Amino acid sequence: MAALYEGFTLCGLVPTQNASDSPIQGIELDGDSDHAVVTDSTRSVTLYKVSDQKPLGSWTVKQGQLLTCPAVCNFQTKEYVVVSDNKVIRVWKDEDLNIDKAFKATVSADVWRVHSAPGGEPVVLFQRGAVRLLDSLLSAPQQPIEDVLSEEEVIRWSTNIVAEKQHFVLFTTEQKGEHFLYVQRLNPNTLQKYRLEREDSGAPPLSFSASLRDKHINLLYLYPNGCVYQSVVAVRGPVELEGVQTLPRSLRLRLPVGEGKLGAASAVALDEAHVAVVGMPHPSARTGKDFLCIWNTNFQTLQAGKEMVGRIHGPVWCYLGKLFVPHGKALSVIPYECQKSSLASALGKLRHAGIAVSKSSVAVPSWNSLLHGDQPQGPAKIVDTRKSKLSRKSQSATALNVDQVLELIKTGPVEEVQREVEALVSRGDAQDLQLSVGQLACHLVARSQAETAFYTPGALAQLVQTQCLCHSVCPDLLLLALEHKDYFLCQLCLQLFPDIPEVVTCACLKTFISVPDGDVEMVSLEPDSVSFMEGLVAAGDRGGQQNGFSPPLFEEDSCDAHHQPKPPQHQDKKNPTLQLEACPVGLHKAVLLNEVLQTAYSDNFLLPHLKDLNAQQVILFLQYLQFVYLKFSQDVYTQTPGLRSPTMTQVGTWKH
User: Per residue in 415-436, pLDDT tens?
Assistant: First the structure.
C-alpha cells in the first residue's frame, strides 16, 4: 500500500512569460535532509529549510544574466555550483552574500548540466555530450571540449548515479524523431549508446527518471499515451559494446489518460513497486483536473491520489519520502509512504482464505452451481474448452475491443453492456486485464450513479474477481454495491480489495448488522465462508472446560452482563456460556460480518467511524463477537483447513 499525506507550500512561483516553460529549473538537497536548493527559471537560487518553509539564503545573478542550469551541492566541499549564460561556472558557500563576488570560471563550450551525488565528485555535462569532472575542468577552464553527439542531436534529459564507487552519467538525446540513451562511466571512462524503441505514434517521452536497484540502473520513462516503460542497464556489464544497441524495455504501467493525451506529466519511481505520476487525470474524477497519483506497477492499481490545483509545471522531484511538485503558483511538498509488505500481505491473506481465481481464465461460475455440484466432468471441460476456443476464433471479427466496450457502457442497454463486458474479460489475458479492468469498472460505476435504472452486478463481480482491481482504482464500487444491496459483490470486494478505508468498512458493518436476516438468507455467497458458519453454528457444546481452561465471559463488553444478576455459586455447575449457544444473527448475516472482521484496518482511523453505530447495533455486534469467540475458546468447533473464516485474534481484536 501507499499513501499521500497532507502537504504544504514550500514557496510561491512566479509565472514565466512562456506558459509552456516551468518556473523552476531544479530542486536539489544540500546534504542536510531538511535543506532544499531551489533554482528558478531566471536568476535566483534559494536555500530553504523544508520543515518550516523558511528561506535560509538567496543568491541572484546580475540583471541581464541568466541561470542556465540548476544549482547543485558539492557534497565533498559543502559548496554550491551553478552555471550562468551557458559557459560561466559559479562556486560559492553559505556565507557568501553576493554570488557575483564568488569564484567563477568561463569554459570553452556550452554546459548542459552540472550533476552531483553523495559519494562522488560533481560532473559537468556539456551540450554536445562531453563529460568532465568539475575539479579537472576548473583547473583548466579553457581546455578543448570534444563533440560526442551527431549533428542535429540534442540532449533532452540527464542525471547521474554513483554505484559501487563507480560514477555514471546518463543522458537521453533526440535526433530526427529517434531517441537514444548514453551511459557514461567515469574512471575508467567508457561510453555506451543505446537506441530507445519508438512508440507507434512517434511521440517523444514526456519524462525520464533513473534509480539504482539490485546492482542495476533502472530507467523509467513516460509517454503521452500513458504508457510507462522500464529499461535496465547492468552496473557490472560489458565495459563497452560495439555500435548502438537497442535497449530492451518492458511495459510497467498503462495509465488511464481518458480521451486525450498527457501534456506536462512526469513519472518518478519511488521503489521497486511504486511509481508517482503527476499531471494525469484521476480514473474516477471528471476530466480537466490534474492529480498526483501513486500507482503499484506490479498489480496496475492506483494506491493514492491528490488533486493538484493549477497547471502542472514539468517534472516532479523525489527526496527522502517527500515529493516536490510545482503547480499553479506554488511549489508543494507532499510526504508519501510506500509499504513494501502490504501487497504481499494482501496476497498472503487471499491464499490463506482459500480463494483461487485464475487470471488466465476468469469466467465466473455461479455459487449455486458450485454448491449443488452441477459442474461438468473433466472430459467435458476439455471438449468445452476446445469448442470455446473455436468459438472465440469465429467471433474474433465481431468481438468488441476495450475502447468499443467503454463507448457501449455510456449509452448501451444493461443486458448488452453486461454481455460485452463479461465477454471481453473472459477472452482477455492477464496483461490485458491489468490494463483495462479499472477503466471498465469506473465507467460502469459512473453510469450506475448517474442512472438509477442501470446496474450490472454480474459484470462488476467478474471484474472484481480478476484480482486486477482495488478500492483506490474505483472508490465508489463498494458503496454502490451497498446501495443496491448487492451483498455478494460486497463480499467479493471485502475479500479481494486490500485497501478499503476504515470509513467504508464501518459503512459495511452498519449495513450488515442492520439488514433483516430474511433479506440476506436467499443471497448466494462464497461457499467456503458459508460452510464455515454452518459448521460453527451446528457444532455442539462439549462442556464448559477444555483441558483445564474455562474462558471468562465478556462481562465488560456485553450489555446483558451488566443487567443480569449473577447466579449463586452453588448453581454455577455448568459454564454459563451455554446460554449463548445460539447464534444471535442469521447464517448469511454472520458470513458478511465475518468478512468485516477479516478486513485490515487501523485503530486510529476506525474508532471515530464506529461511533456511527447506534446502541442496538453495538449490542448485537458484541453478542455476535461473544458467540464466535466463545465457540473458538471452548474448542467446540474444529475448523476445516481451507475454509475462509476469521481468526480468534481478529475476533478478539474487534472485541477490544
Answer: 999 999 988 888 765 555 666 7
